[in-house]
Amino acid sequence: MGSEGSRVVVPRNFRLLEELERGEKGIGDGTVSYGMDDADDVYMRSWTGTIIGPPNTVHEGRIYQLKLFCDKDYPDNPPTVRFQTRINMTCVNQETGMVEPSQFPMLANWQREYTMEDILTQLKKEMMSPQNRKLAQPPEALEGIRRIKELNISCLILEGDSKVVVDWLKTEYNGLWNFNNEEEQFLWLGREIEIQ
């Protein structure tokens, strides 16, 4: 017989399987989702999360991708959380995209009952907070250039409206970005990409 007040500790892999099942079924209104990166990873460490920016904020309509890494001590300790999409938030390191536990109370005060869904939902709420809802965000065009570089693409063939936008950017980029030298970063990142 068990004593009153004792609790059952769910093993790590069972817990992660529960989270995987919940993530696959979908969460709430669909603006937050997550899943495993590699179905063959028996330790279930690497996960990808997505947050669709909340309405009435500078994040509205933007799609943010995150990496969550659940080490072998999860859920006793929190996963590491890193935005892959550039974002300007008070709890995110601007250089690395890491969510800083010291600036994000859920990670700083981690409890075993918290889940990856809780983290993503709380980050979405953080986007709506007064200190983050109006912060200037990195331009999305720069994200596209970064992704092209990550994929080692050296030549783009654009047609239709895309070509018009790129031609406009090539001639009218002056003054488009004033966020952390985005103009210089755009030119530097795009210098090796031929656009036809």
TrEMBL record:
Residue stretches making up the UBC core domain: 11-166
Domain of life: Eukaryota
Record-level GO BP terms: DNA damage tolerance; protein K63-linked ubiquitination
Coiled coil residues, start to end: none
Entry-linked InterPro entries: UBC, UBQ-conjugating_enzyme/RWD
GO cellular component: nucleus; ubiquitin conjugating enzyme complex
Assembly: Heterodimer with UBC35 or UBC36.
Protein name: Ubiquitin-conjugating enzyme E2 variant 1D-like isoform X1
Name of encoding gene: LOC104607397
